[in-house]
Write a structure and sequence with these properties.
Blueprint lengths: L11 E5 L4 E5 L8 E5 L18 H10 L9 E5 L11 H12 L4 E6 L15 H24 L7 E3 L5 H4 L3 H21 L4 E4 L10 H11 L5 E6 H7 L20 H15 L3 E6 L6 E4 L2 E5 L13 H9 L12 E4 L6 H4 L2 H18 L3
Parallel strand pairs: 3-4, 3-12, 4-5, 5-6, 6-7, 7-8, 8-9, 9-12
Antiparallel strand pairs: 1-2, 10-11
Helix pairs in contact: 2-3, 3-5, 5-6, 9-11
């Protein structure tokens, strides 16, 4: 089936790559979904020996706040609960100060990333009893923070993001048993989230065992069997690699030796994948990818995030986003209240350039104009 070529609404963009500028003519058709920027690209893949230094939260907030097109701005931010941005052990006063910092820039907080990995105090979701206990402790702390931010009034929507915190190579030593253990841990995490009035979103990504292909991702969520509490966080850069079978060749959708100029084949493949995963999606990252992987610092290789106007980007971002944001009948799913841009592992030089965020904002507004609602 040929993927639907959705209209882009009133957005138009002309890219002059010689000067890395994008001229936009933007008006807003819809109020939803709200448009957010992720703060964790200031941390992920940075700060370790040999990597670039971290970018502090104040700077990330300022860069996001400075982006404006015809009076339109980002609506909010999504946050990683890890220092030096936000401590997982933040006190109530700490969180009030965080809320003030966000609110003074006219933003709200949406989704939160739980630091579930061993280097950040967590542990493998399929690991030993101690490792799984550490994983769940980080989920519990994250959900408690999410609830406190709701009580403060700075957060009214969003999820708590998790993953399996283990590698595909470790998972592959016992695929059935390890998937079962991950599902058991996730069910315990769901009980924690429910006690706090929160939902969890597991991010499908090629670097996380048991979640490293579209098929394994769907099988895991079915096995957890808590659809009201846990869903999927879909990132367009990571899920493009699902169609290539990266780290899971048997689940490849695009043919071997695929010619990237044959765009309808690409959108057919994306449509096949999204038909399976879209019903689970409760958090969505707009992104671009050039069909390659990237690792930085302590972060394993995963889908490379590219600028929206990257000449090597493989997707029409607006068209591909519609495959996640619209159902099989072409109607908006309204499954998320906000969409987020994730620029993980962008070089600091790119991140410190104000034009980067104006271009990204333009893309996010184009996605909302094409697939949003009131």
């Amino acid at each position: 089936m040929t993927a639907v070529n959705f209209e882009i609404g009133v957005f138009s963009a002309v890219v002059d790559r010689r000067y890395n500028k994008m001229e936009q003519v933007v008006s807003t058709k819809y109020q939803y979904p709200k448009v957010h920027n992720a703060m964790w690209p200031g941390l992920v893949g940075k700060g370790s020996p040999g990597a670039e230094p971290c970018i502090d939260l104040e700077t990330m907030l300022d860069l996001t706040a400075a982006a404006e097109i015809d009076g339109l701005r980002f609506d909010g931010v999504d946050i990683f609960l890890f220092e030096p941005h936000v401590s997982i052990d933040s006190t109530g006063d700490d969180l009030k100060r965080l809320a003030d910092r966000v609110a003074k820039r006219g933003f709200v907080i949406g989704s939160l990333v739980a630091p579930v990995w061993p280097p950040t105090g967590g542990g493998s979701a399929m690991g030993s009893a101690e490792e799984r206990k550490n994983f769940l402790t980080q989920v519990r702390k994250s959900c408690a923070i999410a609830g406190k931010l709701r009580d403060i009034g700075i957060r009214q929507y969003g999820i708590v993001r998790i993953d399996s915190a283990c590698s595909p190579s470790e998972w592959s030593k016992d695929p059935v048993g390890n998937t079962k253990r991950i599902a058991e841990t996730f069910r315990e995490a769901c009980a924690i989230a429910e006690s706090c009035g929160e939902r969890l979103a597991a991010e499908g990504e090629i670097c996380w065992g048991g979640m490293h292909s579209w098929k394994h991702m769907a099988e895991l969520l079915v096995l957890v069997n808590r659809p009201k509490t846990i869903g999927m966080q879909a990132d367009m850069a990571h899920t493009l690699l699902f169609t290539l079978g990266y780290n899971s060749p048997d689940d490849r959708i695009l043919p071997e030796g695929y010619d990237w100029s044959q765009k309808e084949i690409l959108y057919d493949a994306l449509a096949s994948m999204t038909r399976v995963l879209r019903p689970w999606v409760i958090d969505f990252h707009v992104a671009q990818n050039d069909a390659t992987v990237k690792g930085s610092g302590t972060h394993d290789k995963t889908g490379r995030h590219c600028l929206p106007d990257d000449p090597n980007g493989k997707m029409d971002v607006v068209r591909a986003a519609g495959l996640w944001m619209r159902d099989n009948n072409g109607s908006p799913t309204r499954a998320v209240q906000h969409i987020n841009w994730d620029g993980c592992m962008f070089p600091n030089e790119v991140m410190m350039n104000p034009q980067t965020w104006r271009n990204i904002l333009a893309t996010m507004l184009a996605v909302r104009n094409a697939h949003g609602w009131n």
